[in-house]
Structures are given as structure tokens and as C-alpha cells.
Amino acid sequence: MKIAVDAMGGDNAPKVIVEGVERARDERKDLEFILYGDEQQVRPLLKSDERITLVHTTEQIEGDEHPVKAIRSKKQASMVLAAQAVKNGEADAIFSAGSTGALLAAGLFIVGRIRGVDRPGLMPTMPSMGDNPAFVMLDVGANADNRARQLQQYAIMGNLYAKDILGYANPRIGLLNNGTEATKGDELHQEAHKLLAGTEGINFIGNVESSGMLGGAADVIVTDGFTGNAALKATEGASRTILHELKHTILNSGIKGKLGGLLLRDGIKQVVAKFDASRYGGAVLLGLKSPVIKAHGAADSRAVYYTILQIAKLIDNGTVNKFVDYFSTHDMAAEQGKTDEN
Amino acid sequence: MKIAVDAMGGDNAPKVIVEGVERARDERKDLEFILYGDEQQVRPLLKSDERITLVHTTEQIEGDEHPVKAIRSKKQASMVLAAQAVKNGEADAIFSAGSTGALLAAGLFIVGRIRGVDRPGLMPTMPSMGDNPAFVMLDVGANADNRARQLQQYAIMGNLYAKDILGYANPRIGLLNNGTEATKGDELHQEAHKLLAGTEGINFIGNVESSGMLGGAADVIVTDGFTGNAALKATEGASRTILHELKHTILNSGIKGKLGGLLLRDGIKQVVAKFDASRYGGAVLLGLKSPVIKAHGAADSRAVYYTILQIAKLIDNGTVNKFVDYFSTHDMAAEQGKTDEN
């Protein structure tokens, strides 16, 4: 299998991208890569070009560009070339740590949507302190607005992903809402609740609140992109702020505190590791015809490596084809007596 | 000044309510209380009835009742009687740790809205690790749906509150959004951004993301009730989960870890105290004609005490009257060329 890699996207590109790719390449003999990037920068970083093809380009999409315009005007951008390779069948999946908006645009306009999916959803894997080690959540920001039937599509894809990639036999699907009672929420979430409760083949456990996310309230948290973005960023921000304050306090609490910190170092490392999402890989843009995966902009080589492993599993398992199969045999609009698109 | 207290609301009522009230009463000679609750339960808890009038009632609103129906049918419920006392001018403010929905209903239908405020917003005070020690945020769930001009009203009230109660000279007002750029968000948040940018007398700093909440991104975070609820609960849930895991790890990391925990005890206590919101009191329902304050259902006597002090300050400063004055001299609908209500 072959992965198209945007070597220039992300805060620490191309260095960490090349390092992560090479680590995965050295471990997995079945992996091949096409790296799109500036040859002058990328070539010197490569230990070897075994199973790595380097395609030179100097064009690149910046974080502050308008995603759709950038995709359309910068035909030689590393991200655009990677997407083009997947569209042309030269590669099986896209990796990028670049702009999420641009990657979504490249996914939509170059790779294309799965028929039956209105809007792709961005789905990270997060650590859970519940019975299962992790949960997925979508959409966390590919969309600023979602409709109820899009949330239903997210539930279906999230369910298949949790089974296929996380290995959960019967993932618990929860709807992120402002209370657990079935009647809670605004119109969108009340309608989504009804749709999910009536969807066959998923284990819908009802509404969940964002307070329970890290505690394992659900294996798949279904949410609109605006709320999901706020809940995810609040979780990340709170975790970061607390761990930072803890570190700061230990370093500034005199000899006694420092000694305590030293003795507790392993324990604190364990806690930090437990809340580290990067070992689960990147965020998947679910609903596109091929796997399109976004690593965090601040990803280090380890995060890149884990994301490559995640992509390999997605390709191996043919997970995206399972989405395609599902939506080609379930005309959800017709089932719901609706014919509206988008 | 006199505070009407729902002695029966909350998980640990009436015990912690009475304890908190008495502590505040003993410290502040200018405070008087009317406690509404079951005399058989409340009377034995009272150390003294100095400046405390106990009004007996056995009716009570449960958390799972429909708020509006409960308020209308249970005329003798402790919360309803407290609201009635404020409406009749017998008391200056309401304290309750009971159902938020019911308290909102009691506020709306008994106390009444300030003219010019479409929908009251629920506003907690949260600790901040930024330059200022705390920030406020509204609405965090009084509404499942909000309109842009309601967010503008929240900005105005939050601004006055942050000046009057937190003592910030020029509070930084931020709009919670899915990115910092002015064009970010769905239609509601794009419109709210424009309204806030055009509102005189507030220091609008633009969009803020929920990742920056605890870090001090803004002094007043303006948000719709659905998103605010998700961001607040995610923050609370992540903080709780991390501190729990840390404690669990220390207790299970052998002699070395336990010793480290012992040495670090003061430091960890400091961190926990830094993230403790209860010293700032309860959540205020802004937009009602009198102060209506909700303590956390799980509040202990210390949280009740701090909430009483917060209420005393609100009464002392006449903060609610400043809201009334503002909205009576600013016809915001007319200023914006709009005449629609709600």
C-alpha cells in the first residue's frame, strides 16, 4: 500500500514528517510512500529512499489562506499533489499536518465525497479513562453548521470505524447534548436524537454530556462541528492548563516539592501518557472516498509515526470501502421519507 | 439587605445551606435571611435564629420535573416561595442550589425579565490562570438556542458585572467561536461578531477559542447557551478527570510515589485550589429584575457561604439596577434598526 504524504504541512515540517515516515517505513515492509515537498529541504533529511518516492514541489498552502481558493489556485502545492495522487489511483491515502480547512477542501474537491454522505466530518481519537482505552468524536470542526441527518451519518461511520480500527465489538454511540434526557437540546439535537434512536445497527445509548467525555461516557460521540469543536478544544485546553500549573507548582515549591516531584516523576509521566491522544494517530476526515488523515499541526515525529500506522490499518481493513458499501445499500433519505440534499 | 434562601435545593440540603448561611450571617451583621424549607429538618440545624426567619414548607421541586409546570403547580415549593418574596419586595435576592431549569422558570415567571433583555443567561465565574484571577462566561445553558442580539445583551451585562463585582476596569470581552479570525463560525456567531464589534462601551477583543478559557483568553466569554454548556462541562470534566487520575496514580504508585505525594501535598492542594471555582460563588441568572443565584447542586457549606457573599456584593453594588438603567436608556433593537422580539 502507498501513502501520499504532504511533507511540508505542519509547524515542524518537513523534519518530523520525514522522521515519522521513516520510522514507519523501517518497521512495516508493506508500506510505500510518495513524499510531496521541497527536494532541497526533504532530501537531506532522508536516511534512505527505500520505498519512498520524493516528488519535488515548492508550492505550499499557508494556514491563513482561504482553503477553497488556495486549493484551486495552487495546483502544485504539496497537499494538492498528494490529493491528486489519491484521486488518480497512484496512492491509497493522504497524510497531512497542514491546514485542516485546506485538507478538507482538497478532500472534497479532489478526492470527493462518498455518495450518501452530505458533509465529511473530522474525527479525532481521544484517550478515555473509562472501560475502553479510547473514544472517537465527530464532527469536531469540519463544519460550522450541521443538520440532523448529517449527525446520523457520523454515527454510522463512527460506529464502523470504532469496530474496524479500535476493535470494539459493539461501540456505544452517544449524542453530545446539554443534558442526558431524551428531550434535551435545541431543535437540531432533538431531531438528531430521534434519528439516532431509530437507526438500525448502532448501539445508541442516548445523550451524553461533555463532562463525561474523558471519563468514557461513549465510544463514539456524535456532535455537530461547532459544538464538537468547542468541547474538544475545552478538553484539550483544560488538560494542558492543569498539567502546566502542576509542573509550574512542582518547580516552584522549594526543595520539598522538588523532591516530591522527583519521586512522583514516573507517576506523573504515566498520567501525562494516559491523556496523550497522539498514540492513536491523527484526525480522520470521514466521508471521503479515500482515507484523508490530518495530524496535529504541532505533531512530533512520534505522532506522525502513529498516524502512519493508523492510516495503514485503515487501508488494510478497507474501512472506507465499508462506508461506501453501507451508504450504497442504505438510501437514508428515502428511508426517512426525505429527499432534500445538504 | 435580605436574602431569600431555598433551603431545600441541592444534593446536600438543607444541611450545607444552613451552615453556609450561618457562617455568612455570623460574619456580616448587615445580612438577613428568610429560609424556605421543612421546619422539622431545618430548625434542628440552626445554631441560632439571629437575623434568620424560617418559613415552613414541605413542598419541593425535584430535578427531573418539568420546570415551568413545576413552578406553576407547586405554589408552596421552597424555591417558588423564595421567588415570590423577592417579587413582593420582602427580599432582595434569591439563593438556590436546586434545579437550574426550575430556578430559571421561577426567575422568568415570578421575578420577571429586565425590559430590553430577551432571555436571561446563566453566568458562572471561573478561575483563570491568566493575568486576572477569574473570568465570567454566559450563557452556559439557560437557553438551548440563542440569537445574536441576545449574545450582545450578554456582553453588555457581563461587562458591567466584571467591572462591578470582579473589579476589572476594562474587561476584555471575547466571543466563543471555532477560530479566532473574525469570519469564523456559523451564521449566528458571524452575526454576533459584527454586533459586538459595533457595540459601544465594551472592550471587544474578538473571537476566542475554548482552548484558551482557563488560560485567561478573555474576562467575559460570550457564548450561546448550547455551546457554552458544552465548553463549560468539558472544562469541568477534563479538570476533574485529570485530578482524579493524578490522585489515583499517587495512591497506587508504591512507597516512592506515596512519599512523593506526601512531599507534594501542599503543591497539589495549591493547584486544586487554583482551579476551584466555588470561591467565586454561584452562577448568576443575568437579565432578571433581581439577583437570582444558583449554587452548584453538589455545593458544600463553603460554596454556599461564598455564594452568599457574592449575592451581598450584588445587592450592595446595585448591579442589577445598572443593567436596568442601561437597557432603559439603550433601545438596542431600534439602534440596530430591528424591531423583532425574542
From TrEMBL, chains A, B:
Domain of life: Bacteria
Catalysed reactions, semicolon-separated: a fatty acyl-[ACP] + phosphate = an acyl phosphate + holo-[ACP]
Subcellular compartments: Cytoplasm
The EC number(s) this enzyme carries: 2.3.1.274
Signal peptide: none
One function term, GO molecular function aspect: phosphate:acyl-[acyl carrier protein] acyltransferase activity
InterPro entries documented for this protein: FA_synthesis, Phospholipid_synth_PlsX-like
Pathway: Lipid metabolism; phospholipid metabolism
Gene3D superfamilies in alphabetical order: Isopropylmalate Dehydrogenase (3.40.718.10)
Keywords, ordered alphabetically: Acyltransferase, Cytoplasm, Lipid biosynthesis, Lipid metabolism, Phospholipid biosynthesis, Phospholipid metabolism, Transferase
Main location, first listed in the record: cytoplasm
Biological role stated in the UniProt entry: Catalyzes the reversible formation of acyl-phosphate (acyl-PO(4)) from acyl-[acyl-carrier-protein] (acyl-ACP). This enzyme utilizes acyl-ACP as fatty acyl donor, but not acyl-CoA.
Quaternary assembly: Homodimer. Probably interacts with PlsY.
Family: Belongs to the PlsX family.
HAMAP family listed in its UniProt record: PlsX
Name this polypeptide is given: Phosphate acyltransferase
Protein's organism: Lacticaseibacillus pabuli
